[in-house]
Amino acid sequence: MPSVLGVLELRERVALARAEELRAELERLQAAVVEADEAARRAVIAREETVAALAELADEAAVTGAPAGGPVVEPVAGAAGPRLEVPVWSEGLGVDVLPSDCARIVALVERDAASGGEGVRARRMREDLGWLASDAKEQAARFRAKRLVERGWLSEGRPGLFRPRTA
């Protein structure tokens, strides 16, 4: 018959071995967490860089002080498609001088305000324009709306919520 001390020593060795196995598993899991955090950080940076690059393309497309009634769409070869000229808003200037997508966005925002809405987000603009559901198309609608804000056609009360321009 085994001694009581022998049984307790065996239990101790089994418990210590199990603790060592768990420590090794914990180290492996911690390394996996660090690796996943790094992958997430890289994805965030890639997304932010892409958004910044797209914003720069949209900024390059703007032509300041375009004359009223002048050409509003200037096709330019490139991955981003045609660049749109949005004239700066001035008294007496109608939406007919805007590119068609921009005019439709302004009309949507004005309809929303007339019906008592709080503002329009890019997703609703994308839907109203009849574009396919994708983050890229939603981002394109957002860029157009931000360009309209910069040019005085719309205002942005809260980030991403577009309203008619304030007088």
Give Rg in angstroms: 29 Å
Listing every helix as H and every strand as E from the N terminus to the C terminus, the arrangement reads: HEEHHHEE
Binned, the helix content reads 55-70%
Low-confidence stretches: 63-81
Strand content: 5-15%
| Overall pLDDT level | 82
Q: Based on Cα principal axes, name the global outline.
A: rod-shaped
Number of helices: 4
Major beta sheet summary: 2 strands, antiparallel
- What structural class do you assign from the helix and strand content? mainly alpha
Number of strand segments: 4
* N-C termini distance: 97 Å
Q: Give the strand order, joined by hyphens, for the main sheet.
A: 1-2
What can you tell me about this protein's structure?
The chain has 167 residues and is mainly alpha-helical. It is 58% helix and 8% strand. It has helices spanning 4-61, 100-114, 122-129, 135-150, and strands at 73-74, 83-84, 154-158, 161-164. The strands form two sheets. The protein has a two-stranded antiparallel sheet. Strands 3-4 form a two-stranded antiparallel ribbon. Helix 3 crosses helix 4. The model is unreliable at 63-81 (pLDDT under 50).
